[in-house]
Amino acid sequence: MLWLTQDFGPRARMIPLPLAVLGIVLTVIQLVWQNLRSTDELRMDMISVGAAPRAAGPGTAAEGEGGGGKRREGWREEARAFGIVLALFGLILAVGLIPAVFLFTCGYFVLTREYAWRESLIYTGCLTAAVYALFMVALEVQPYHGLLRPFVELVKAALH
Predict the structure, then answer these.
(1) Per residue in 67-96, pLDDT tens?
(2) Secondary structure of 79-146 as H, E, C letters
(3) pTM here?
(4) Residue 64 pLDDT more than 50?
(5) Nearest CA among 105, 113, 68, 65 for reference residue 87
(6) Other C-beta atoms lying within 10 Å of the C-beta of residue 91
(7) Tell me, what DSSP letter sits at residue 148?
(8) Is 155 in a helix, a strand, or coil?
(9) Spatial contact of 143 and 98, defined as CB atoms under 8 Å apart
(10) How many of the other CB atoms lie within 10 Å of CB of 124?
């Protein structure tokens, strides 16, 4: 990526170049961290890792259902993950990037009960401010306003 961005203009390099540098730095940190730890931490008992939890007794219902329940549960988790990504994408298309970040993050924190309402709003506000500062202020990227674009232009005209 670093090599490819050298042919770009200065403004075109503003996003891929810092991301490539950050990726290289994080990769080097990960390699150093993994290789400088003691070998005792890296050892694991493969028998205990691969063993499935056993049922309470022989002939129980859990023994017969072995892989079927896990397969169905895995499918539901995948569908949920795809739904979350589609919800974010739909929000970005409908209301634009900044409101979508706010609504999606706050909704996720509240619905999953990751944080209380107050903490969710604080963390969401900080994340939204960071996204705004990075893209709109530092990189000077014009925001996508989604389907609300006519409304945003109306508000801008009223303020000027």
Answers:
(1) 555 555 678 888 888 888 999 999 988 888
(2) HHHHHHHHHHHHHHHHHCHHHHHHHHHHHHHHHCCCCCHHHHHHHHHHHHHHHHHHHHHHCCCCCCCH
(3) 0.52
(4) no
(5) 105
(6) 19
(7) G
(8) helix
(9) yes
(10) 21
